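For the sake of transparency, this paper describes our internal protein records without simplification. Such a record has a labelled line for the sequence and another for the backbone structure tokens. Nothing more is needed to write down the fold, since each code stands for a local backbone conformation. For reference, a complete record is included directly beneath this paragraph.
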Amino acid sequence: THQVASMVVFEDGLAKKPDYRHFNVRGPEGEGAPDDTAAMDEVLRRRLTRLVAGAAGDDAGGAEDADAQADPPAAGAEGVAAAEDLADAAGREAAGEPAKARRFAYRPDLILVDGGLAQVNAAQRVVEETGADVRIAGLAKRLEEVWVPGEEFPVILPRTSPALRLLQQLRDESHRFAIAFHRRKRSKAMTRSSLDAVAGLGPAKQKALLAAFGSVAKIKRATVEDLESVRGIGPSLARAIVEHFRSGASDPGARPVA
């Protein structure tokens, strides 16, 4: 199901996109978490464990989660800053100096979770169990109630409140970022499944075909002669590819999942 979570970062009321991260949710059996609260617990625990370790001076613990993925730098001021950071790292490596690892040791003032009292209490348990010094709040859907740990009733902010609009922006941006990542993962898996079903078509040849044609749809429409023009694709494999797609063969894993 490609279960994912997202982390967006705002600083001084503005999105700090180079610090956004995606997370692959593993779950207890490596097949994803059983529900949203368990997924949040896992990701938040990974994030805060590294925060605490980094604050204690543990370089390995403070280093970024291997499963946390950043988007490539986007255009604009934020993208430029990220590109400069990468260039600096490359320069240090060229000079024989280790590149500085991205870290999770930066302590946020507030972590906003998507949900109500149950999600906020679950997040607060993670904070207490990891020993992190960070505040938790939650924004519940529909009524847009703000929940904080230990309170029986939510905080109700006026609908026109700038504070509520900022929290909504955070929540909506996190949703957008997670959905975009999920779609990319699903699309990549569908592409891989479709090409994997062709006997003799390994990863290197799949990559060569995608580089030459740009998409699986164009590969499906290609002739034997078109396919043969790609390095590593011989006549017999080219015929096998054409026959595979023209026969309507498909792989069950290529079906969209939600």
